[in-house]
Amino acid sequence: MAAHAVRVTGLTRAFQERTVLDDLDLTIAPGEFVALLGRSGSGKSTLLKAIAGLDHDVTGSGELEVPQEVAVAFQDSRLLPWLRVLDNVELGVRPGRGRAALEEVGLKGRERAWPAELSGGEQQRVALARCLVREPRLLLADEPFGALDALTRIKMHDLLRELCAKHRPAVLLVTHDVDEAIELADRVVVLQESRIGLDLPARDADRTHLLSALGIGVAA
Ligand SMILES: Nc1ncnc2c1ncn2[C@@H]1O[C@H](COP(=O)(O)OP(=O)(O)OP(=O)(O)O)[C@@H](O)[C@H]1O
């Protein structure tokens, strides 16, 4: 097995005059779950897109090593409205594995539904199933639960934890939610001033410390 699921060295990305990522390094081990925090506009999505291979304008002395089997989940499920749930899940992959994946995310029986007939949480479950059928070695998730209500979010946390324990992909989860990061991840990293400023095991991560790293003061 490869020594790492992601290895980024010297990654730089600028938009016009503004350098968003500057000579950034990040390594993720196989099976490791990393939560990426950072202030709004700090470059979290930019980093995720670069790792996903969706950004061809990254520059610098950058070296990007990412496995072939990558799946990406976004805040909106990005399901195609004209395809039924099962066809969305199996889009671009060999048919046949979608039913099992839908069962894994608790949507057995909804294969023939249209995306518009599903709730937001159910649509995110379909998006997770779509990731699962790809058997990813790396799952990149950009605020996948950001638009969900609190209760649905808790259920999705449980589901993601369960799926990760079973399939063991490496995960890079972009989130605004410090508690979500500590709860789900093995390791928490914070983007600060265009680089990884803070990098620590989730078990050592302290809520107040992380909030202050994000520039959010907490009253004692
Ligand atoms: N295509 C683009 N063109 C110009 N500027 C961009 C582009 N994409 C991102 N940026 C800028 O880069 C910076 C980082 O954006 P990014 O979306 O990565 O931040 P983020 O940390 O994910 O923010 P948020 O938490 O608010 O989603 C922002 O200032 C944004 O305006």
UniProtKB/TrEMBL annotation:
ABC transporter domain mapped to chain residues: 6-218
UniProt key word Transport: yes
Organism: Lentzea cavernae
PROSITE patterns: ABC_TRANSPORTER_1, ABC_TRANSPORTER_2
InterPro entries the UniProt entry points to: AAA+_ATPase, ABC_transporter-like_ATP-bd, ABC_transporter-like_CS, ABC_transporter_ATP-bind, P-loop_NTPase
Top-level taxon: Bacteria
Annotated protein name in UniProt: Aliphatic sulfonates import ATP-binding protein SsuB
Pfam families linked: ABC_tran
Gene: ssuB
Transmembrane segments: none
An MF annotation (GO) of this entry: ATP binding
UniProt keyword Transcription regulation present: no
Keyword entries, A-Z: ATP-binding, Cell membrane, Membrane, Nucleotide-binding, Translocase, Transport
